[in-house]
Every structure is written in structure tokens, then in C-alpha cells.
């Protein structure tokens, strides 16, 4: 799994374009594979080693899931990599930060080995001050070949300027 490094050449945008794109999809990431090795590493790192994530054979036998699934929080964690891959760099921004979530829903389980990608819509753009812009992305994570997304969220970011 590799994402576009933060400092790599990415398309550019500006505050006016962000504000003009409210309600529009502004980025779709590449596909990322959530394989068992990544799921297991995440489980160990977060100390969430529940069998539906860590033991594919047991998950296949004892659940209707058909095998191991990715942690919901792993799918959520992938939003950062998806955003770096899909969203343009904001001109004049000196720093950006995660500002939290207004809503997160885990809609469909992600089977181990599935590919996922993020879809980003600018839900709102609010100036906190002349130097701060809060952007709400309405984001969904698509599972390749599935009708329902893995998750839907309202993700808040804040950009600082000057």
C-alpha cells in the first residue's frame, strides 16, 4: 500500500474553488487493498484482535461473513491515505489538520483482500477567520464490486493560511 507523499506534486486548488465546489465530488482515490497482513498488523497495533479480523478460518466457520473482515477503524484510518491520493493541494495553505467528524457510519463489512477507494465531496466550507478554513468532506469508501459502501462520514479538516 502506497499513498502519494504529502509533498509530492499534486493538482492545486484555492479557497475560492473549494467554496465554489460545495456539493460537488472533488476527488476519488486510487484503490487500496486491505489484505489480511494489514488487517492483522492493525489488530495488533490497536490491541483489537477479535477473531472476525484476525482468524479467517474461524470467521468463515462461525460467522455469516465468509471469512475475516477489516476493522471498521482500519477503513476509517485509510481516509488519510485516500485524501492524500485524491485531493488537490490548497494554494497558500501553511498547515492543515484533522478537525474531527460530525458523523461516521460503518455500512458494510470489508472482506479481507478487498480493494477500497475513497470518494470526496465538499459538503461545506466555512471561514473561521481570514486565516482559517474548515472544510467538511462528505466521504464514502467504496468496496470494489459491492453496491453498498464500507463507510460514510462527514470529515472536518481545517486549513491555516498566511
What does this structure look like?
The chain is of the alpha+beta class. The chain contains six helices and eight strands. Strands 2, 3, 5, 6, 7 and 8 form a six-stranded antiparallel sheet that branches. The chain has a two-stranded parallel ribbon with strand order 1-4. Strand 6 and strand 7 form a beta hairpin. The longest helix has 11 residues. The chain starts with 11 loop residues before the first strand and ends with a strand. The N terminus is likely disordered.
Looking at this protein, list some descriptive labels.
single chain; 162 residues; alpha+beta
Question: Can you summarize this structure?
Answer:
With 162 residues, this protein is an alpha+beta fold. The chain is 26% helix and 40% strand. The chain has helices at residues 15-20, 36-46, 51-54, 56-62, 72-77, 79-86, and strands at residues 12-13, 25-28, 32-34, 89-90, 93-106, 114-129, 132-143, 151-161.
Amino acid at each position: 500500500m502506497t499513498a502519494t507523499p504529502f509533498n509530492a506534486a499534486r493538482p492545486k486548488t484555492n479557497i475560492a474553488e473549494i467554496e465554489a465546489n460545495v456539493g460537488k465530488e472533488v476527488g476519488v482515490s486510487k484503490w487500496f487493498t486491505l489484505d489480511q497482513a494489514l488487517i492483522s498488523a492493525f489488530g495488533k497495533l490497536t490491541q483489537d484482535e477479535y477473531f472476525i479480523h484476525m482468524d479467517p478460518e474461524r470467521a468463515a466457520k462461525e460467522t455469516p461473513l465468509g471469512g475475516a473482515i477489516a476493522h471498521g477503524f482500519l477503513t476509517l484510518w485509510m481516509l488519510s491515505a485516500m485524501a492524500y491520493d485524491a485531493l488537490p493541494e490548497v494554494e497558500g495553505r501553511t498547515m492543515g489538520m484533522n478537525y474531527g467528524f460530525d458523523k461516521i457510519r460503518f455500512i458494510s463489512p470489508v472482506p479481507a483482500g478487498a480493494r477500497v477507494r475513497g470518494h470526496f465531496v465538499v459538503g461545506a466550507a466555512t471561514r473561521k477567520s481570514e486565516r482559517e478554513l474548515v472544510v467538511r468532506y462528505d466521504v464514502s469508501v467504496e468496496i470494489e464490486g459491492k453496491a453498498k459502501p464500507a463507510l460514510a462520514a462527514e470529515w472536518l479538516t481545517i486549513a491555516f493560511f498566511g
